[in-house]
Amino acid sequence: MLQSHFVLLVIFSICVSIVFAALMREEMREQAVLAAKMFAGLLAAAIVIGWLMYPFPI
Amino acid sequence: MVATAPAQARTTANAYLLCALSWAIPGAAHLVLGRRKGIVFLIVLPAMFALGLALQGRIFPVDFSQFLVALAAVAETGIGVPYFVARILGYGAGNVIAVTYEYGNTFLIVAGLLNTLVVIDAYDIAVGRK
Known about the structure:
heterodimer, A: 58 residues, mainly alpha, 79% helix, elongated, B: 130 residues, 6 helices
């Protein structure tokens, strides 16, 4: 499972989102909302950029 | 003004001590300052570093003849005590042919960089900016 790029991407995004949300907000609820938004943004950006790069050879 | 100067110096000294503590043990300074979010840093950042090691990432040597390697090494030292523990225990040799090698490096480097932000946040709290 830990060789899946997608799973690792998700784990990385979760960790980064949690830390940034804790740094940028003080209230628990605000932290949770910001972490969820950042996680969704990171994941969406990775998928979109991945598909945009798909036609190009390595 | 004369009476407040020593107090100011003491506050600044304490802030630097807290920064050192925050660097050594991620989130510790926040807990000392009464911020519960320190627990988040205490769990997440060392976990990211450990995951980076488990993914066969490399703990880079501080070698200034290779600029990018040196930058990566400096970033990784940002995690504090876990970095030195890993080095002492012989982890972080890195396996460049492993599928997860680059991910491992990313986790190691980003854990160190995020802890640097945590140190700056601890400083801001200590001097009363937050």
